[in-house]
Each structure stands twice: as C-alpha cells, then as structure tokens.
C-alpha cells in the first residue's frame, strides 16, 4: 500500500476548508439577494442585515488572508502579497526569533538535563557492537593526528609549548599525584629494585674497567710503589663494599628500602603542600625538557611511537584497538557506578554547549534567514499555506459567521432603541 505524501494530505485538507469558507461567503451573498425578494417584514430586514454583515465580514477576512500570500484578484494593491515581497525581512526575523527565543541557553540546558547524557554514553559503550566500531574509528584517527603534529609549524609550536605545559606551576602537583598512586600500590619499590638490579648488572659487566680505574687512581695519589702494592687490593675492596651495600638494599623490608619509602613519601607531601617545592620541580622539568638533546630524543621517541602505532593498526588483532575498546568499556563502567563521574560528564557537556551556544545561535539565525531568502515566491507561499492555510480558512469562516450574528444583533438593538433602521 502506497503511503500518501504529507503535503498531498495537507493540500487536500486546505482545499476542503477553503471550499467551506467560500461556501459560507456565497451563502451570505445568496441570503442577501434572496432577502430582497421576500415580503418586507421585520424578520426579512433582520435576515438582510445579518446576511450583509456576514458577507462583508467574510469578504474582509478573505482579502486580509489573501493579501498575506498574493495580490487579491491579481490586482497589485499596495501592502498586499506581504510574504513574497518581505521574505528576506521575514526570514531574518524568523531566524532571530528561533535563535533568541527557542534555541536559548535555558531551553538547551533543560533538554540536556532531560537527555541523561551519561546514561546514553554508558549504554553506547556497554554495547560491543557500538563500542568496537568506535574504537576502530578512534584508532584510525591516531596516525593522522600524530602526523599532523610532525608538521613543521605544529612541531615548532609543540616544542615551545611542551616545556611550559610540563613545567608549569601544576607540574609538581601532577607528579605528586602520580607518585602517590605509585607508592600506594607499592610499585615504587619495584622501580627501586629495578634500578638496583641495573646498577649491579652494570658493575658486574664493567668490573675489570672499574678495577683498573681505581688502581690508576691509587697510583696517581700514592705513587707507583703504593699503586703496585695496594692498588689491586683497594680496588677489590671498594667493589666488594659497593656490591655488599647494594645487596643490603635488595631484600624487602631492609632499612634502606624503608628509608627510601619514608623519603619519597616526605617528598610527595612537600610537593603537595609547599608551593615553592612544586615550582622548583616544575622549573627543573622545564629545563630538562627544553634541552636540545632531550628534544631530539623526544621527537625520535615520537616517530618510533607513530611508526609502531601504524604497524599495529595494520594487524587484524590490533593491540591499540583492543586497548581503546577496553578503555571505552572501563569508561562505561565508571559512568554506571560513579555518580561523581556522571555529574562531571554532564557538567562538562553543559559547559561546552554553553560556550559554543552564542556562536551557534548566530549561525542558526543566519542559516534560517538565508534559507528563507533563497526560496522562490511560489515555494514560500505554497509551504506556508500548506502549514497554516487551514487555520486561516477557519478565520474566514468565523469572520463570516460572527459578522452574520453581529449584523443581526446590531439591527435588533438599533431597531429596539430608535425604531426603524435601514442598513
């Protein structure tokens, strides 16, 4: 079964109502003429007065409504065909009305509040069929994003910005929070153990070179005889003591590890509570990151990361896609269980919308004005008549009927007050 076009249904309804309104007008004209053929009585005069008033009311409303869309009877009477002649001004007025009275910040905030954006995001991320394509899309954007940063101008901007961002006033607090998480999970001891293991491996691998360097130093300070007699013994003793101290640090619960734990916790507290210490950390980071050697190393690391990412994205089972998908799923879980996270997301979206809303309002008003201005006369008249034409025909009907009733009532009132009255 073919579904009818909404415009076709609206056009048929408009035609029916137009016929009814015109029929009432014709009826008033027929009653007026017929009253002149009837015997001259009070009832005849009442009918005649009412029919005349109804006919005049119907004609006046027909003229007013027709003048909105076209020239009545094709006669170019001034101030008729208002909508076609004033469509640019009407378009601008309509655009401003929608932007300033419909698309307002309060209305948008109310809509966002009713939408429950955190719930929508959670349901989207909880659906694997939706989250997987989203993860693939985000992963596919990463190489292009990384490549764009390597552009010459972008690279210079990043080179200037990174030291300031990483070494800003909040850098100490950021490092403190990161260290806090590291210490709370006990991972700082793993890092400490890794550093000790690397130091021991380095000493073991370069023991011969270190022994020779110590012997040479003893020979320089004590002379050839002392160096020949005691150099080797002193070198062995020094290396043995160093290894012994490193061994003392290795076991869990050792005094040195406890001292390290106490020291790092004290430093974290200082960075969190002492602005001068936090600024000092930030300044040190800024100097390190701004160093030319570090810059070269960072860009080399950046290039390797980009190449590794592109290579990984080319695999069917990409780790990057899997990681992003897991991160999205984790975000969905957080939004489901953490009211604070839900509130933060809702607030963040509302702030973003509030920031871009003024520009969006201006663009919306401009867009509506441009669309209306580009409509041809026939199109704008046809569309508006289809939307409001039926209601306008009710105005014609009401004008005819009300005119008929008021005309009869006025005749009866005047006749009762002043006697015979002729219209």
From TrEMBL:
TM segment ranges: 19-38, 394-414
Keywords: Membrane, Transmembrane, Transmembrane helix
InterPro entries in the cross-refs: DUF445
GO-annotated cellular components: plasma membrane
Pfam family, one: DUF445
The keyword Cell wall biogenesis/degradation appears for this protein: no
Protein name as annotated: DUF445 domain-containing protein
Organism annotation: Rhodopila globiformis (Rhodopseudomonas globiformis)
